[in-house]
Amino acid sequence: MTTSRELDGSSAGGQFLRTALALSVLENEPVRLEHVRGDRPTPGLRHQHLAVLETMAELCEADVAGAELGAETIAFDPGLEAADGSGHGGLEGGTYAVDIGTAGSATLLCNALLPLATILESPLSVTVTGGTDVAWSPPLDYFRYVKLPLIRRFGVEAACEVDRRGFYPDGGGEVTLRLVPSRLEPITLTERGPLEGLRISSIESESLADRDVASRQAEGALERLDSAAGLELTTRCETTTASPSPGSALVLRIDHGTGVAGFSALGERGKPAERVGEEAADAANRFLEGAAPVDRHMADQLLVCLALAGGRMRIPAVTDHVETRCTLLEAFGVDVGLEREDGTAVVSVTSSLDVGP
User: Fold this and answer.
1) The domain 91-185 belongs to what CATH superfamily?
2) What is the pLDDT of residues 146-181, one digit of tens each?
3) Percent of the chain whose predicted confidence (pLDDT) is above 90
4) CATH number of the structural domain 291-357
5) Which residues are part of the catalytic machinery?
6) Residues forming the annotated binding site?
7) Are 92 and 121 in contact (CB under 8 A)?
8) Which residue from 67, 129, 227, 312 has the highest number of Cβ atoms inside 10 Å of its Cβ?
9) Binding residue positions for ATP
10) Which residues participate in ATP binding (predicted)?
């Protein structure tokens, strides 16, 4: 391998790894990561992290070292050279299949792949088998109905097809992410527009249908939402689905004049279905009390796109994930500004990543 950018993950988790790999491919720059997931009780690569590494490597035929479960040091060289052997070559598309092998998050893998649309030379289709609605990751309907619609506004052409859901502990869900070559426009998300509507997506596995879990989740959310906000319910979708494991999830989407924001909760053994809806509604109510146009989870997810296209974004809070991702972007030469204003923060990028052929 050529000289690599040295990165230390001792105070970070899987997000640091996924973002570093995406940036490595986007900039065609080798990286060496030490202390992978160093701040987790079980550091090193777990199944879902290994799946991201192996997928990235397969997409660009990368040179990789340390691609094994438990590895705490990895080296990754994308090697995307132009046809004439000079400069940054684009990424060829194609059709791929990835089996995480556990209930590891399929949505986190898809999230890691989304920015690659900006260097694609042809359409890319990746079918992922794993967990679609599992803890510590965006539920599938957040990815489909909040993340994708928002980034489409700025030029990323992406779609997600669902074959089946996968809840913890068996996973077994299957989704297909489709990307086409895209050009990101500068992102400006500093003001929230007028509230335009509310979408509720509530899902239950077949094994929970006789308890009306999906309906009770939705009712719990509606009863808890602050009526003073004046939100109009525009879509209520309750779905019963086949899945290897029992499970449920609820996602609220708030549409406003400049974007969308999402809030979610997962069902758990012993948790009343109504409480699932209430948890998502509580997060929505906190968002409505503030002034940011994006929710706290979208804040860090959009940072790579911001780094690619430049722009400004107001976020609800500077979370650990935001700080970690900003630090990583700066390590790749991105000039990231962060200003705290009136209980929110504004992230800005004036010097974006230099990617593509």
Assistant:
1) RNA 3'-terminal phosphate cyclase domain (3.65.10.20)
2) 999 999 999 999 999 999 999 999 999 999 999 999
3) 91
4) 3.30.110
5) 321
6) 297-301
7) yes
8) 129
9) 297-301
10) 297-301
